[in-house]
Amino acid sequence: MPTIERQALLSLEEAHELLHLLLAVAQEGGALSSQADHLARELAARIPSEDERASPSEPPH
Question: What average pLDDT values come out for the chain (61 residues) when binned by 10 residues?
Answer without folding.
Answer: 82 96 96 97 95 59 41
